[in-house]
Design a protein that fits this description.
The protein has about 300 residues and is of the alpha/beta class. The protein has one domain: 3-Layer(aba) Sandwich (UDP-N-acetylmuramoyl-L-alanine:D-glutamate ligase). The protein is built from 11 helices and 13 strands. α9 runs antiparallel to α10 and α10 crosses α11. The longest helix has 16 residues. Bound molecules: adenosine-5'-diphosphate, 6-O-phosphono-beta-D-psicofuranosonic acid (CKP) and magnesium ion. GO terms for molecular function: 2-dehydro-3-deoxygluconokinase activity; ATP binding.
């Protein structure tokens, strides 16, 4: 039994050692990532337990993902070994947009995309405080999407990060599928941003977005504004926190660190501002390095950051 369950595809990340187009990059640094795994690690750094429902390949990378996840405290009991290969991706940094990264996937047909409703252990999901997934899992395959719907059906409480990846599906398909999920299930915490909200609702204004998401059954909205910071809404409460100005190495994974940190503290009854500030701290540290989850701080380390920085 775990506090939080996440469903998604863990991936091997090859992060460019130098900036620029991949064809000129000679060295890559390996990291373990994937949005829902990053999220789980952030939940755990803030002292709740988290398990990942996923599939990895019967290969060295699959074993690497399981061992790394276990070493970070993730409950790996629900990660299945599949005969397909473990998905990988490369991170191209700083080109063509400075300070931004582009993800180049090699994941079609991967083990992770074979995730299916049969992988969703009913007791495991029912007993968790909260079940989390993202638009990435909805996009990678029909069976993975069905797994998310099954888990959300069984969940006591749900959080969802829209994470729309234009390389994985069309905006129309993303809108149709995500709105179907939001229409069907009440979401305790929705994590999203103006780009995704433009696709989903045709608007970007945070207040207007909260009004519309609320009509769809969203209780709390965590609205990320990239280098500007983030704003959170719950009922009549609204809190904004500006991002910190730090050197950016690779922003990949910042949103997941923020989401996992926020949810973990939210579930522990911390107030919205506390959870938001800790989420901002986690994302700030993550953008400063290559790798999506190594820098995600514990609650105590984030407190030190807030006091001393
Ligand atoms: P995602 O990684 O999901 O795309 P964002 O890019 O919105 O999410 O980033 C989430 C958080 O990471 C932001 O709210 C902010 O705190 C931090 N962040 C992102 N980009 C920067 C940046 N360039 N400088 C400082 N902080 C950043
Ligand atoms: O939205 P974020 O930058 O926080 O998400 C990053 C993750 O799962 C990254 O680990 C990558 O593997 C992915 O999102 C993805 O599939 O795009
Ligand atoms: Mg994101």
């Amino acid at each position: 039994m775990v506090d939080v369950v996440a469903l998604g595809e863990p991936l091997i990340q090859f992060n460019s050692f130098t900036l620029g187009p991949l064809r000129f990059v000679n060295y890559f640094e390996k990291h373990i990532a994937g949005s829902e795994l990053n999220f789980c690690i952030a939940v755990i750094r803030n002292h709740l337990s988290c398990g990942l429902i996923a599939r990895v390949g019967n290969d060295e990378f699959g074993r690497n993902i399981i061992e790394y996840s276990r070493s970070q405290g993730v409950d790996v009991s629900q990660i299945k070994i599949d005969d397909s290969f473990t998905g990988i991706y490369f991170v191209q940094r700083g080109y063509p947009i400075p300070l931004k990264s582009e993800l180049i996937y090699y994941r079609k047909g991967s083990a992770g995309s074979k995730l299916s409703p049969e992988d969703v252990n009913e007791d495991y999901v029912r007993t968790a405080k909260l079940v989390h997934s993202t638009g990435i899992t909805l996009a990678i395959s029909e069976s993975a999407k069905d797994a998310v719907f099954k888990a959300f059906e069984l969940a006591k409480m749900r959080s969802f990060d829209t994470n729309i990846r234009p390389k994985l599906w069309t905006p129309e398909k993303a809108r149709e599928t995500i709105l179907k999920l939001l229409g069907k299930y009440d979401i305790e915490v929705l994590i999203t941003d103006p780009d995704d909200t433009k696709i989903l609702l045709g608007i970007t204004d945070p207040d207007e977005a909260y009004r519309k998401y609320k009509e769809l059954g969203v209780k709390t909205l965590l609205y990320k504004l990239g280098a500007k910071g983030a704003v959170v809404f719950k009922d009549n409460l609204k809190a904004f926190k500006e991002a910190y100005k730090v050197p950016v190495e690779d922003p990949t994974g910042a949103g997941d660190a923020m989401a996992g940190t926020f949810i973990s503290l939210y579930l522990q009854g911390k107030d919205l501002e506390y959870a938001l500030h800790h989420g901002i701290v986690a994302s700030t540290l993550v953008v400063m390095v290559r790798g999506d989850n190594e820098m995600t701080p514990t609650t105590e380390d984030a407190e030190r950051f807030l006091k001393e920085f």
